[in-house]
Amino acid sequence: MKRTKKKPQSASAPLNIVTKQNEDRLRACFAENSQLLLPMLDLLQNTRASINELMHEAGRGLVEQLLVISAAEVAGEKHPGRKGGEIRWHGSQQGQIVMDERKLSVKRPRLRHRDGGEVPVPAYEQLNENPRLGERMHEIMVTGVATRKYGKVLPEMAGTVGISKSSVSREFIKASEKALAELKARRLDDKDFLAIYIDGIIVDSRHVIAAIGVDSTGDKRLLGLASGSSENAQVVKDLLRGLIERGLSTEHEYLFVVDGSKALRSAIEELFGERAHVQRCRVHKQRNVLERLPKECVSQTAAIMRAAYKLPAKEGMAKLKTHAAWLKSKHPDASAALLEGLEETFTVNELGLTPALMRGLSTTNIIENPNGAVRRVAGRVKRYRDADMVLRWTAAGFLEAEKHFRKILGVKDLWVLATALQRPTAKPPEKPVDHKLKAA
């Protein structure tokens, strides 16, 4: 398992800038995920605008979210279908503020008294009465984006217009609860999943197990999370049963890519039986072997393992058994670690997958890689009260990372995996017909 630790961000990381045509996308993202302050450097692409243009357009989305929070402090949260109290929500309208000596058009919420009459939104009023607040908010944004301290941007901007930090915090908590609830309610019977990765991470010294699926189109999707270690058989079974209850068929064959946990392996076998093809993570395997060797033996053994994994299953296993026998006299622990579960490190070879697919389906890096997003989100919490709180924020981090998941490596060859798993829809892609050649 990979422990999530905060890593220093490089100041020289490239900055991608979005054009003004993408402002609707920015507004929607900030509205839905204000608690995450989307990693702008990943979101904003294909740029020709200046840094000030980015701040102008991105600032619009943040300001609009702040105005909604400010309005909620006056009128309470929106409750569709209810009349509300003395002060009620009354739609929205276009408005203007000044940010860094520029007029910024924003959509501002409207509030009205129960008996009629407009009620001002405090944050909007302050921004118009004191133009220097806009300058300060712009400064906060520039600093936050330049240093990648996204978690500080919204609270600091909120503070400049009199919105309490507790209101922002409540928005964060509410959003994280919503993210976890949506994840637990996701149906899984609308996708044809072929491979399922399961591994654990550690957040604030607490274990969380994550499951990510790859469907027949090569798309990756977060399937579920569970609080607990992959060494805990009951936790793993509960996670898998939850996936089944939400529509994951137990009649299909799957490729499970997992770490070396015996409890995890046992749970998969109990619930899926012979329909489960288990691939042990090669990165975990190499780590377990190499950490038991002296430094002078590491590079040789690592090279032999990498070379063996590229061979047909029978030849590759024979090569590693030979190397284990050579290690046994001086390094028995490393030899035993190499032989333990050896066959399951060659499952992708046995299935006859292409080299590209084998690279993508032989490790659980797909779960460890989103740790950056999990760190960014989970790191905003100074003190976790309990395991449920850890799970909520981990879900928010993974769902944020999911938005930027790419298709699996070797996606064009996924039909090979589908065929190996005996899926009826499996077929190779049709080659385009050269009509000129056909006519000739």
Task: Give a short overview.
The protein has helices spanning 23-32, 40-43, 51-75, 122-129, 131-147, 150-160, 165-185, 233-245, 262-272, 282-290, 295-309, 313-328, 332-339, 347-350, 355-360, 365-368, 371-378, 387-402, 414-420, 435-439, and strands spanning 2-3, 87-99, 102-113, 118-119, 193-203, 206-215, 220-227, 254-258, 276-280. With 440 residues, the chain is α/β, with parallel strands linked by helices.
Biggest β-sheet, characterized? 6 strands, mixed
Count the DSSP helices: 20
Q: Percent of residues in helical segments?
A: 40-55%
Q: How does the helix and strand content classify structurally?
A: alpha/beta
Basic shape: elongated
Q: What low-confidence regions span 5 or more consecutive residues with pLDDT below 50?
A: 5-18, 34-56, 141-151
Count the beta strands. Answer: 9
Write down the Rg: 26 Å
Spatial separation of the terminal alpha carbons: 60 Å
Mean pLDDT across every amino acid position:
77
Multimeric state of these chains? single chain
Strand content: 15-25%
Order of helices and strands: EHHHEEEHHHHEEEHEHEHHHHHHHHHHH
Please render the helix and strand layout as text.
Layout (H helix, E strand, L loop, with lengths): L1 E2 L19 H10 L7 H4 L7 H25 L11 E13 L2 E12 L4 E2 L2 H8 L1 H17 L2 H11 L4 H21 L7 E11 L2 E10 L4 E8 L5 H13 L8 E5 L3 H11 L3 E5 L1 H9 L4 H15 L3 H16 L3 H8 L7 H4 L4 H6 L4 H4 L2 H8 L8 H16 L11 H7 L14 H5 L1
Parallel strand pairs: 1-5, 5-8, 8-9
Antiparallel strand pairs: 2-3, 3-4, 5-6, 6-7
